Amino acid sequence: MPPRAAVNIHNLSFKTSICTSCLRRDFSSTPAPQTRLRRQMFAWLQGPGESFRHPLPNSTNYLSAYNRQGKLLREGEDTPESTEDLRPFPLNKTFVSEAILSEDLRQEIWRRVQVEKKSVRTVSVELGVEMRRVGAVVRLVEVENQMREERKQLALPYARAIHEMLPTTPYSQSKVVRHESINDLPVHPLTDQQLFYPTSESRAFNRTDAGRVFSAATRLPDEQDVAQGGAAKQPWQDIQPEKVGKGKNEMDILKPADARIPHPHLIAFAKDQQELRGNDDEIKNRYTQRLEDDATSRAEARERKFAADEKRKTRVDTGRWQFVVTDVKVSRQGTGITGRGAASPGMRYGVPHEDRKKGQVKIPTRVEV
Amino acid sequence: MRNRATTPLSKAKVRQSWSKFNLYNLSRIRSPPYRGRTFYQQKWTAKSILRDYHGEPVREAQWAKQLFRRRLNAVIPMDPTYMARNDGTIESSGRGSGLKDEDDFRGEIRKRMDKTIPYMNMTFAPLERRLDTAIFRALFASSTRQARQFVVHGAVKVNGKKMQYPGYLLNPGDMFQVEPQRVMFATGAPKVTKKSAATTDADSGEPLDEAESKPVEEEPAEEEEDDDDVDIEREPRELLKDLMSQAKSILSHERAKIGAKKKQDLRAFTKAVKRMLSRSTSSSVLTDSLEAQFEEIKNQLRIQKQQQKSGQAAADRAKAANESPDAPLAKAQVDAEAADPVTPDEKAIAEDKDANYLSDEDLKQLQLAFKSSSENPIDPRKPYATPWTPRDYMSAFAFIPRYLEVNQNICAAVYLRHPVVRPGLAEVPTPYGPDVNGTAFTWYLRRR
Description:
The structure holds two protein chains of two kinds.
Chain A lengths: L19 H5 L11 H11 L53 E2 L1 H13 L4 H8 L3 H19 L6 H10 L2 E2 L14 E3 L20 H8 L28 E2 L6 E2 L4 H4 L4 H11 L4 H32 L1 E5 L4 E5 L5 H4 L34
Chain B lengths: L19 H9 L10 H15 L6 H8 L7 E3 L2 H6 L3 H4 L13 H7 L18 H7 L6 H9 L3 E3 L2 E2 L11 E5 L1 H8 L6 H11 L5 H4 L8 H4 L10 H16 L8 H19 L11 H11 L2 E3 L3 H15 L3 H13 L4 H8 L4 E3 L1 H16 L28 E4 L4 E4 L5 E2 L2 E2 L7 H11 L4
Parallel strand pairs in B: 5-6
Antiparallel strand pairs in B: 2-3, 2-4, 4-8, 7-8, 9-10
Pfam families (chain A): Bot1p (PF12298)
GO molecular function (chain A): structural constituent of ribosome
GO cellular component, one term (chain A): mitochondrial small ribosomal subunit
């Protein structure tokens, strides 16, 4: 570094913009010059960037809502934001800051599930909130209530600030504002491939057939095919797993989209609406009946599974502890011919653990609730 | 671990952070040039600028070999009404049979397929599963680095159990929770001390305005002692007038930082409320709920709600009767009104001469100010500036992707599902569009 000339502070005129803090610095009498880039940055921050320093009251405040000069593109701060204004990354047109649940809507979801004892499925349809989200909201509000009861410190000012900064889905009793799409169909890996399947024009080729073609299964016989006048179940009820292939190649047959969406019963509801136009009572009765049937069949299946699990367990109650012994099977399929295979439970004598080997990741893969 | 997450100005890199440097860089980045560059060069640039943002603490080999997936999760929103009308036969029926779009659902189908699915923006989706990234996305930390520190320092729980690995990959349904005080510290404006005031001054290189350069540090001991200087023995009406003006100041939506005047008002308001509550006859009022405490304050200030329409008019007149010089005349009028067959409410109002009448709006404002002053008090023991305000430049970065469900009150969130892409919308927050992401995706396909 070249030697610097000492600057006498007293000779400097204060009319020029001088860095006052530099004069306060302890060990150097040289005013450190700002680089051009830093100057530009602070010029931007004090110019166009000043708009981002504090949130706009009750509105989002993203980069794409402003022009290069830092002027708000929409008419006034009170006009609602368009999708254009909701992009935090100006170069990424496919990412939008989507609305979060408002505090009222969250409390309403919790109330309907926990107080009115409605099923998650019903609440999801009523309020237009995904079922997984309904479950999560109930779980989080329960934790919140518990923390309030224990008088733990909450982050209330933070929560209020966030709800003012982000778009929110409001709740009103008169009008339902749908939060998100509740019938999302996941794109199945089997449908990634492009298939050319010649089929007869005289026969209807529907979504059930498409699923079977994608999983290389044979076509349904006519007497089971609804499209050919067969008396099978409706596609939305078709949830019985079916297999195709043998041995290692065995896999599930892809069910029609009707059965794979989260709320298949809404298809039957829409059909009812078309067929029984005007007969609202009957439509509603059928709808509730369908949901009830679904709930009972699910509860039965759960019970059956629980009973089957219990059958494999022996419970020994000592008064203080309850020991649960689970019956396991160690078979040749699990241990393999060498007797060292890891598919069956239990230690293998002479087979070391791998956890001391190089490259073994110790980070847990799941945390049980 | 060395912090490589620097934000040099010479080369604009966008990071997962809310710093003003990062905001400036985000405002000036451009899509990388492709003209005159080989495909290899384009891919290299694309993947390096994206890796600056995504999973920067993850080593390149770790990302490319263990985390990167070529399969990208997508969903299609289905319309049950359409599915009820059409079992799929229209999509599969023969083409070129002279059918026009208007003849059947074809136009509708085409409209449905109109939006492309930006698959390529899902390239870095696996990194969104990381615990530190998810904490940053839930707006619990101001950068992924800070989120990482919270995890390592043991301030984060997953499903109720302490988790100290920032690289833990969340499973759908996992609930993570950060200590609320840490979140308030991370997202709140920093406490201004004499030392930090000097350094921020030096950073900006320009003299700051007075309100900011003055250290806002408070003397903690003073708070408890000088309670007596708030005179609450005064006339309830005057006290209420003061409280109302202070309430307005507390709730004012000023965009600037909290100024000295606002703080003074907040402090005076809090003290008055505190003294009033301590004067209460009920011994349990200090541990009661906020609603009960507010009722007590209302009693002490003799606040009555103004009645609507006729009731309101009567109340106004009663108020005027107390204040105006020709009181006896007006009073007689009010008494005459009270003698009329009126509702019991109105009668009560006419009887209570000392009551202070507040409109619904004013009462609401007073309650809000009371709530806000007790929930967001001045507390010099906190490591952040109090009363809590969001830190500078936070709003430009504040968004919560849909794969998380966040409860801000308790600073907990549930990782609902893996991020997905849908027609026209990708859920992975990334600073560049599908073209740059796609180029980076081809780099990791390892066929370069």
